[in-house]
Amino acid sequence: MTLQLPRKAAQLIAFLKKNGYGCYVVGGYVRDSLLNHMADYRGMDFTTNATPEQIQGLFPDSEYTNRFGTVIIPLSKAYEKLELTSHEFEPHDFFEITTYRSESAYSDNRHPDTITWGTRLEDDLSRRDFTINALACDGGEIIDHYNGLDDIKNKIIRTVGNPKERFSEDALRIMRAIRFASQLSFTIEPTTLEALTAQVQLLAHISSERIRDELMKILASNSASRGILLMKDTGVLTYVLPELYPTWGSEQKSPKRHHIYDVGTHLIKTLEACTNPDPIVRLACLLHDVGKPKTRAVQPDGVVTFYNHELVSTEIAFDIGKRLHLSKHNLIKLTKLVRYHQFTVDEHQTDSAIRRVIRNVGKEYMYDLLDLRVADRIGSGSAPDSWRLQLFKKRIEEVQKQPFSVRDLKIHGNDVMDALHIPSGPQVGTLLETLFKEVSEQKLENTKGALLNRLVQLPHKG
């Protein structure tokens, strides 16, 4: 089987061959191209028998600042040598090319203690994680020493060689196996899955940031719920989201309640129903009821209640976000979506009540919250939509045309001072607050002319 490479890649390979070195594209680009997935040349990895020093000798403007043999070649500095035009690449594009290598001893279960430059492609491919990532191509026949082509055809995730050795070398491969299974809708081969399950404790050696990155990729995948269940069944979830385990078996069925699943199953089905591609929104779907087991109570009439579960769920989501080192923006987004997922949808709501919902969650997250609500309904066994929810969506659009704070008024402090000839001070803010109150009560239009006309009528000290 052959694979045609982009001209940029072909030119780099040809240049190295011209200078006496072998060079191949390896890993994800080859895999994704064979799967007809969007394969970006900027994600290409190259491997060669040239040492880093020899690569730099050919590309003096390249960068080599690591111990793994990876040299960065900026195309803006190398394109003429590769006989490319300036129109064939973006200004910040680069190639990563790594020397064939063998590795030994992984005392931290993540990085090799010893690295030795190699001379054979087969030896370099033998150190890679999964057979589907151990494929190489130089523009001709695809080189496949470990039956990766068959595993792609049969949709199988299998380690290269002994799975126990591969996972002990780099424990992050445990999560990568589940991530690839989720992204590609592949099955983890039994021996690989058995070794993965037996070695989950090695994830304790992996940083929270690396765990987070893999989790986000799983959540963003087409089979996110399957990935979470794989983590649950293998014990991986103990090192990623242990807070979810108590939700399975926490029953919600009771008189006067619409739920038909236990909490954990409901969370998985909510995640499964989420059409929003943002992994933070999907994480909120997965965690929005995580506090229910702690708040569960059965009333004398048999009704199961979860009073204030959204508050407890928010606290748990916050702790998870801090542990995963989410950015400040993503942590705020996650906790707001979880905190306010129970917003009321009622045809009798006033505009003020709807504005309060939007103000609480933030205008920038309102439509994410609606996506969570729809997924929550589906995950509860209800219809995805209702006439009340449709009405609420329409009213949100209408209400957002009105100002939400003084800053949304069409005049500002300088306008007030100029119109009334008054100095800066608390009085300016008080006048703006009065105008805002009248606008929010729909007693005054939010136009500059109307606001200035009303302004001069308000009592003030000149």
Automatic annotation (TrEMBL):
**Pfam hit, one:** PolyA_pol
tRNA nucleotidyltransferase/poly(A) polymerase RNA and SrmB- binding domain segment(s): 186-244
The entry's keywords: Magnesium, Metal-binding, Nucleotide-binding, Nucleotidyltransferase, RNA-binding, Transferase, tRNA processing
* GO molecular-function term, one example from the UniProt record: nucleotide binding
Q: Fetch the CDD domains from UniProt.
A: HDc, NT_ClassII-CCAase
What the record says about family reads:
Belongs to the tRNA nucleotidyltransferase/poly(A) polymerase family.
Name the record gives this protein: HD domain-containing protein
Q: Which organism is it from?
A: Candidatus Roizmanbacteria bacterium CG10_big_fil_rev_8_21_14_0_10_45_7
